[in-house]
Design brief:
The chain has 460 residues and is α/β, with parallel strands linked by helices. The protein is 38% helix and 15% strand. Helix 3 packs across helix 5, helix 9 crosses helix 12 and helix 13 packs across helix 14. It binds nicotinamide-adenine-dinucleotide.
């Protein structure tokens, strides 16, 4: 059994309700509820099912539940067969939250976006917590996985769970372990990197921080059923901040190379060649790569959860703000280079036909949340361009939180009919040699045409 040394000593004195949960988690006979069956919650449910746990997924989106119950996946990289296999192992999906009371542990994986004013939108976490509260049972473990600022679990979730549960239960706090009348709460951030197949999912260590040490241990043992290693930290706040540090580190370093790219373009230096050379240093340097702007649910959003919270402490998170400013300017930079490329051919953006390659925010995935492609379409259309797109992962692009495009994927043929082919996402499926050969002009924001020599290419 994997226990922290401190807890091993107290394990014999654990209250019966915790011992019982711990045993079921170790033996994987525990029932686990996963709330929010999106990019995080669905793969997690499958992993837990494959590890032998009895898993029920909860979502308010009826369509997702109907699809899953019919053995259908709605996430590109998860084939139907994986859903069907999980079903054979007992996985069920439901919109009926009363089933939560049967679960030994409940894991919440709901969205944490920003509002229009770039402030944390915790409405999903709050609503989910309110849905969970009435069904809490004594000894249950509740884990939040959604990325958020330090203090969310303690300041937002716990008060609701305590006030709105029907049995008058309290969260187990630090200090003497109660024999009865308590439940346990922990935070454990998700670390998935969609499209990255270099590390097996189970080999990504899972950070867990409980409200006190019993919750930490229960959560750590739960995750050790599916991950090679749990990393126990001393509090929910440390676990919450860990995730933000990881994402801020990426945002700041991407901003750094984006800024250096802008300078390098003026100096006539190839920034990608520079990064590749620097990356040969065996210590003290980790390569980050420039691009057309940040995308995805994490990097463009999560840092602002911390900068918002920092204001409560009269603190300005200058690195976060500066990185945001640089990264957010990149789509406009790409549009400038489309204009430059067209200009070289004595054409204007106004009236041009542009085929954009890639809607997804990064290569080989089917996720367009916060994708810079969306912004670039808007900017090009504002300047009078006609924009079409091709992306093997998106047959259509309809409506999202901040866009309503109603576009259909254009076949990758007759490229010479477009004034410009704009590479926004470097999907592996594309044949870049052929694209360059057949296009009139290629604007490449990803260095996807590396090694191809042609006067038609404008790298930006
Ligand atoms: N996608 C990633 O790669 C990734 C990586 C690390 C962390 N995260 C974090 O994980 C969290 C979830 O992200 P995601 O990408 O899975 O989001 P998602 O939008 O793909 O899925 C969220 C799901 O929650 C459901 N939901 C919303 N409100 C609900 C409620 N009240 N009750 C039940 N279900 C509800 C939605 O219908 C949806 O199916 C976010 O905080 C995100 O920042 C995501």
């Amino acid at each position: 059994m994997a226990c922290v040394p401190g807890l091993l000593q107290v394990e014999s004195s654990l209250p019966q309700i915790a011992k019982e949960r711990l045993r079921r988690l170790e033996e994987r006979t525990a029932k686990i509820g996963v709330i929010g069956l999106g990019y995080v919650g669905l793969p997690l449910s499958i992993l837990l099912s494959e590890a032998g746990f009895s898993v029920t997924g909860f979502d308010i989106d009826e369509k997702k539940v109907v699809d899953l119950e019919a053995g259908r996946s709605y996430i590109f990289r998860i084939p139907n067969t994986e859903i069907q296999h999980a079903q054979q192992l007992g996985f069920k999906a439901t919109t009926e939250f009363s089933n939560l009371s049967e679960q030994d542990a409940v894991i919440m994986c709901v969205p944490t976006p920003l509002t229009e004013h770039r402030e944390p939108d915790l409405s999903y976490v709050e609503n989910t917590t309110r849905s969970v509260a009435p069904w809490i049972r004594e000894g249950q473990l509740i884990v939040l996985e959604s990325t958020t600022y330090p203090g969310t679990t303690e300041e937002l979730m716990i008060p609701i769970l305590e006030a709105e549960n029907l049995l008058g239960l309290k969260v187990q706090g630090p200090g003497i372990a109660a024999e009865h009348g308590v439940f346990y709460v922990a935070f454990s951030p998700e670390r998935e990197d969609p499209g990255n197949n270099t590390v097996a999912r189970r080999d990504i260590p899972k950070v867990v921080g409980g409200h006190e040490e019993i919750a930490t241990e229960l959560a750590a043992v739960l995750y050790e059923g599916i991950f090679t290693r749990s990393v126990r930290v001393s509090s929910t706040r440390v676990a919450e901040m860990t995730k933000l540090l990881e994402n801020i580190y990426r945002s700041v370093n991407i901003a750094l190379v984006n800024e250096l790219k802008l300078l390098s373009l003026r100096m006539g230096v190839d920034i990608w060649e520079v990064i590749d050379a620097a990356a040969t240093k065996p210590f003290g340097f980790h390569p980050f790569y420039p691009g057309p702007g940040l995308g995805g649910h994490c990097i463009p959003i999560d840092p602002f959860y911390l900068s918002w919270k920092a204001k409560e402490y009269d603190f300005n998170t200058r690195f976060i703000e500066l990185a945001g400013e640089v990264n957010e300017s990149m789509p406009a930079h790409v549009v400038d280079y489309v204009a430059k490329g067209l200009n070289q051919q004595k054409k204007a953006v106004n009236g041009s036909r542009i085929l954009m390659l890639g809607m997804a925010y990064k290569k080989d995935i089917d996720d367009l949340r916060e994708s810079p492609s969306l912004k670039v379409i808007e900017l090009l259309r504002d300047q009078g361009a006609e924009v079409l797109y091709n992306d093997p992962y998106f047959p259509t692009v309809g409506r999202g939180r901040r866009y309503n495009l109603n576009m259909t994927c254009t076949p990758l043929e007759s490229l010479d009919q477009y004034d410009c082919t704009l590479i926004m996402t470097d999907h592996s499926d594309y044949d870049y040699e052929e694209i360059v050969t057949k296009s009139q002009l290629v604007v490449d924001s990803r260095n996807a045409t590396k090694g191809i020599h042609s006067s038609k290419i404008v790298r930006c």
